[in-house]
Amino acid sequence: MDLCAATMQNSGPAEDLKTTVMQLRETVLQQKETIMNQKETIRELTSKLNRCESQSTPEPGAGARKKEQGKNTMGDVSRGPSDTLAQLGQTLATLKQRLENLEQYNRSNGSVQANSLKDLLQNKIDDMEKQVLSRVNTLEEGKPGQRNDTDQRNKVESTLTSLHHRITDLEKGSKGHRPVDKFQLTFPLRTNYMYAKMKRSLPEMYAFTLCLWIKSNASPGVGTPFSYAVPSQANELVLIEWGNNPMEILINDKVAKLPFLINDGKWHHICITWTTRDGVWEAFQDGVLRGNGENLAPYHPIKPNGVLVLGQEQDTLGGGFDATQAFVGELANFNVWDKKLSSADIYNLATCNSKAPSGNVMSWSETNIDVFGGATKWTFESCRHLN
């Protein structure tokens, strides 16, 4: 071995080989260190991704009318809050500019091409709306104490509402003014800020009939199609389907379970009648009596001077919304009467008979409703849109 060592020391090629081996060894060590650093980086990124995914998983409901302090994040965030909101803001600015160009083009031409551009833009806004609202909702749930995120979310909501109002104006301009009752409201996500509000209160009522068209495939539970609160009672009149429970009607916080089956993604017409005498009620779906009962808040008149909200359940007068009880789906033709309609009248409403009456207390009209938080209005004609 000494002879071999001596031979290698005195050998030029052998010395070069040794140098090469040492360089290779140093290179391998450097690559190993690089790989270790990359593995650490991957672990950190994986950890962050898992945290984002855990934040984006909605909490399950525990049962109807039980309040739960769970997260309701409906989206997925792969960037920091500032980067995500900046990107969404840039997208909104781009869409706003395109919409302004479309409005100018439509005013000067009024052509088919302008309507086509409007339709493409509306589809883009609809897709972006779901992304914006879900991501901003996720950011707010994840960092409830940061005022900046809340302020930016409010700006996003305001911009979305403005965009949809202007799209509605374009529709009216290109197709002529549509009748004020030929529209539907769409609530695409469970949030605590997307809703519509009737501009006036219900009067005192000793009987009522309320009817509406409804479409949803939300599960579990379609949420709260409407709620009416008064200063002394947040649950004066509420229609809600929450968790795995059946749909319920609440009057003065008293409950009756309704036999409706509507979360199949199809349009359904539902009506509920009630009289204060003995608290007698009836429930109709698609023009057919599906159930009835009595002793629902007997001899309690519906109180006036309240707030009627579509799409949210009120815990306080005009507010206190809980995202887990929000309605997801589409609503139209919400009408209220201060009397019990006959079965024939209800059937005419469900079949769009020309003899069908409009609500004498509250009728479905764009002039009677304000929309907030990204809920949208679309042209709708009831029986023409059936399934």
UniProtKB/TrEMBL annotation:
InterPro entries: ConA-like_dom_sf, Neuronal_Pentraxin_Related, Pentaxin_CS, PTX_dom
GO molecular function, one term: metal ion binding
Compositional bias (Basic and acidic residues): 138-156
Cofactor: Ca(2+)
CDD domains (UniProt xref): PTX
Record keyword Glycoprotein present: yes
Keywords on record: Calcium, Coiled coil, Disulfide bond, Glycoprotein, Metal-binding
Domain Pentraxin (PTX) as annotated: residue spans: 181-383
Region (Disordered), start-end ranges: 50-84, 138-157
Annotated coiled-coil segments of the chain: 85-131
PANTHER family xref list: NEURONAL PENTRAXIN-1, PENTRAXIN
Designated name of the protein: Pentraxin (PTX) domain-containing protein
Lineage: Eukaryota, Metazoa, Chordata, Craniata, Vertebrata
